[in-house]
Specification:
There is one protein chain. The chain is built from five helices and no strands. It has helices at residues 2-9, 22-30, 38-41, 52-64, 69-80. It is an all-alpha fold. Helix content is 51%, strand content 0%.
Length: 90
């Protein structure tokens, strides 16, 4: 019985994760371009504190428009802050 417990209780180390290959990961993420989501095109994250009531209103508005909160807010920001031709992108 002691031998059974020893065999069951024995932990086997899996080992460390192999180092990532950046070229392989970039190739996998690249895909064919047709399956890119809108979120994949946006790389800067914006964090904004809002009241729970405001958050709820934004979520309801997005739902009733059949879109996501992110898409709704991107469109709102585009309307309010259009890219002018004289400005350069950072």
């Amino acid at each position: 019985m002691t031998e059974e417990r020893t065999q069951r209780g024995k932990r086997i180390a899996i080992g460390s994760r192999p180092p990532a290959n950046p070229q392989a990961e970039a190739w996998v993420r690249q895909g064919d371009g047709e399956n890119l989501q809108k979120g994949d095109l946006f790389t800067a994250r914006l964090t904004l504190d809002v009241t729970p009531d405001m958050r709820a209103r934004i979520k309801v508005s997005a739902f009733t428009q059949g879109t996501t909160v992110a898409e709704l807010l991107r469109a709102l920001l585009e309307r309010e802050f259009p890219q002018s031709r004289s400005e350069t992108s950072p």
